[in-house]
């Protein structure tokens, strides 16, 4: 079967406002096309500056077939490198994170500098050229404390995202924070189901009792339509903007990334069971205002985020297979905040730990039902699932263009 043309045919024939055909969620060949055309071509959120504060710090990650290591070199620059030894391909860094003066392959001890240049390779002959065997670099950019990588040879321009995101992120100084807690869960469902579930709160009242104490169920808060016409949101934007915090909804022309600052329920300050702040020490000295709500930032296909006055929660999505997705959540606090003094870890993490597990169950039940041969695409709610429709539209447009060889957008079949 010609998977590429089969996908194009189904994308062109897709009914607007409906979920995708079954194959997009379960088929291994469709999944491979997702990897090749999105995950290996787009900018991907991979971690935070604060995770590698000193020279020699590193962390590793797997993106599809690519093992990657992120390091901070001796000049303080953040580097992304293919974690594959130039000798015989073994992984050089095998731990999830660590610190090392050099990067040493455990197989034959080929030794690399923190910027990836080869320093030592034992008994390789007089004609061996070390300069030609450095670890291969990966395009890497940072903005507002976030690290993004791009696996393609000629990456898309990062400037548009930087220009949009930096004004929103800068006051929170996330590059000067620390990770108070990190969790990784595996959801038995396609990565697109994880995103579709995230992009609506139609399911929240019945499934997220902890989150609903502080996060509004209103589709104007979660979706992409009507926020400026919601008087509560409009008032919140005006208040925050007057206090020097960029807050109004902005979205890229492609629909790939966006940001807005949303109010929490009943003037809550944080994602806690009481609505009070989880951390006594403010996340940033530059943000002293109260009741600023949550800065929501999205960048498909890898991240959604909540940045509050007292802490930030960041989420990273990575595909592991056609029906397997890794979701990593990190709670960031002021670098000087002390556990047990400035915050209680259970109080800080409880709401989103519970919400993540509830979402895992939802995605897995969704995936279970889609495996049925009786499944067919169903209609989204125009009122509550506008965010889902926007995500699916982004995915379909990107895939149509890329499967067609980056030609002009293909016309739809009525």
UniProtKB/TrEMBL annotation:
<dbReference type="GO" id="GO:0051213">
    <property type="term" value="F:dioxygenase activity"/>
</dbReference>
<keyword id="KW-0001">2Fe-2S</keyword>
<dbReference type="Pfam" id="PF00355">
    <property type="entry name" value="Rieske"/>
</dbReference>
<feature type="domain" description="Rieske">
    <location>
        <begin position="43"/>
        <end position="149"/>
    </location>
</feature>
<keyword id="KW-0411">Iron-sulfur</keyword>
<dbReference type="InterPro" id="IPR015879">
    <property type="entry name" value="Ring_hydroxy_dOase_asu_C_dom"/>
</dbReference>
<dbReference type="InterPro" id="IPR017941">
    <property type="entry name" value="Rieske_2Fe-2S"/>
</dbReference>
<keyword id="KW-0408">Iron</keyword>
<keyword id="KW-0479">Metal-binding</keyword>
<keyword id="KW-0223">Dioxygenase</keyword>
<dbReference type="InterPro" id="IPR036922">
    <property type="entry name" value="Rieske_2Fe-2S_sf"/>
</dbReference>
<protein>
    <submittedName>
        <fullName>Aromatic ring-hydroxylating dioxygenase subunit alpha</fullName>
        <ecNumber>1.14.13.-</ecNumber>
    </submittedName>
</protein>
<dbReference type="Pfam" id="PF00848">
    <property type="entry name" value="Ring_hydroxyl_A"/>
</dbReference>
<dbReference type="InterPro" id="IPR001663">
    <property type="entry name" value="Rng_hydr_dOase-A"/>
</dbReference>
<keyword id="KW-0560">Oxidoreductase</keyword>
């Amino acid at each position: 079967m010609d998977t590429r043309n089969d996908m194009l045919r189904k994308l062109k024939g897709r009914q607007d406002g409906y979920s995708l055909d079954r194959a997009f969620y379960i088929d291994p060949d469709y999944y491979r096309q997702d990897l090749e055309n999105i995950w290996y071509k787009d900018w991907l959120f991979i971690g935070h500056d604060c995770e590698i504060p000193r020279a020699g710090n590193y962390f590793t990650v797997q993106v599809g077939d690519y093992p990657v290591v992120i390091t901070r070199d001796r000049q303080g620059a953040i580097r992304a490198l293919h974690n594959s030894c130039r000798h015989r391909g073994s992984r050089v860094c095998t731990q999830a994170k660590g610190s090392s003066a050099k990067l040493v392959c455990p197989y034959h001890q080929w030794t690399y500098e923190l910027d990836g240049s080869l320093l030592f390779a034992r008994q390789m002959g007089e004609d061996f050229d070390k300069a030609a065997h450095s670890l291969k670099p990966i395009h890497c950019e940072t903005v507002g404390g976030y690290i993004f990588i791009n696996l393609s040879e000629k990456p898309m321009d990062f400037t548009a995202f930087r220009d949009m995101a930096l004004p929103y992120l800068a006051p929170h100084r996330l590059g000067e924070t620390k990770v108070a807690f990190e969790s990784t869960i595996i959801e038995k469902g396609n990565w697109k189901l994880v995103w579709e579930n995230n992009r609506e709160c139609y399911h929240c009242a019945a499934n997220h009792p902890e989150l609903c104490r502080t996060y509004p169920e209103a589709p104007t808060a979660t979706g992409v339509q009507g926020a400026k016409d919601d008087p509560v949101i409009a008032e919140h934007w005006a208040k925050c903007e007057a206090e020097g915090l960029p807050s109004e909804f902005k979205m890229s022309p492609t629909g790939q990334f966006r940001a807005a600052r949303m109010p929490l329920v009943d003037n809550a300050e944080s994602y806690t069971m009481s609505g009070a702040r989880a951390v006594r020490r403010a996340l940033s000295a530059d943000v002293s205002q109260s009741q600023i709500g949550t800065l929501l930032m999205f960048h498909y296909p890898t991240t959604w985020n909540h940045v509050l006055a007292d802490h930030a929660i960041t989420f990273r999505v990575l595909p592991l297979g056609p029906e397997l997705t890794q979701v990593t959540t990190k709670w960031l606090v002021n670098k000087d905040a002390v556990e047990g003094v400035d915050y209680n870890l259970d109080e800080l993490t409880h709401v989103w730990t519970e919400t993540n597990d509830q979402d895992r169950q939802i995605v897995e039940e969704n995936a279970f039902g889609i495996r049925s041969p009786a499944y067919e695409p169903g209609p989204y709610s125009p009122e509550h699932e506008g965010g889902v429709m926007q995500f699916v539209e982004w995915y379909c447009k990107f895939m149509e263009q890329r499967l067609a060889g980056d030609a002009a957008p293909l016309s739809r079949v009525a």
